[in-house]
Amino acid sequence: MKQKQNKVSVLFMLFSILFCVCLIAANVLETKQISLLGMSLTGGLLVFPVSYIINDCVCEVWGYGKARLLIWTGFAMNFFFVSLGAICDAMPGAPYWTNDAGFHAVFGLAPRIAAASFVAFLTGSFINAYVMSKMKISSKGRNFSARAILSTVFGEGADSLIFFPLAFYGVIPLNELPAMMLWQVMLKTVYEIIVLPVTIRVVRKVKAHEGEDVYDDGMNYNVFKLLTL
């Protein structure tokens, strides 16, 4: 099945909504540091890998063009949310408001961290989609599991390599950063592997429902070709 359409389906719209919700939720959850098996991590680990799983599903079913639209849509909605949070955080509280510190802790995202987050997200997401697309062409659609896992390793690896140095250089001891980045990539990849059976079933059902299984032959991978579906 090879089909390209300059429109989106209801299922793609639902995937897009979930993708945006995951990105926005990750921003809020990132403000809490959690301890898991003795490791210090951020709460965003609970939801952020889901965005990569959705990215894999969209790229597998609808192709890189739709994944590119998804990524930029997620970026725009996340930027909108963060901007509103920053504006509200900067506004003076009401005389009876006593929770400025708590609100600031959640929504007062430092410009440096926000910039690092946006750059890392775009880079990691597009690398994930690119690897997924190219491997599908080269494998003639076989080995979805390997493609999903490897694309996550490359995407999450790039995300961590960019985000942590940009966001925390000079804040976290330099010798702690490599271990933190490695653990993030490993745990997010393990996350992907654990839910892989569910991902496979979802992809199969969506392909059957949509009647699509796009191969990106001749695709222009320019990330700014936003309207080229």
TrEMBL record:
Keyword Phosphoprotein carried by entry: no
Membrane topology field: Multi-pass membrane protein
Task of the protein: Involved in the import of queuosine (Q) precursors, required for Q precursor salvage.
Signal peptide interval: none
Keyword GTP-binding part of the UniProt annotation: no
Lineage: Bacteria, Pseudomonadati, Bacteroidota, Bacteroidia, Bacteroidales
GO molecular function annotations of the record: transmembrane transporter activity
Subcellular location per the Swiss-Prot or TrEMBL entry: Cell membrane
Domain of life assignment: Bacteria
Pfam families reported in the protein's UniProt record: Vut_1
Key words, A-Z: Cell membrane, Membrane, Transmembrane, Transmembrane helix, Transport
Record's protein name: Probable queuosine precursor transporter
GO CC field: plasma membrane
Bilayer-crossing regions: 9-28, 34-55, 67-87, 113-132, 144-169, 181-200
Family statement: Belongs to the vitamin uptake transporter (VUT/ECF) (TC 2.A.88) family. Q precursor transporter subfamily.
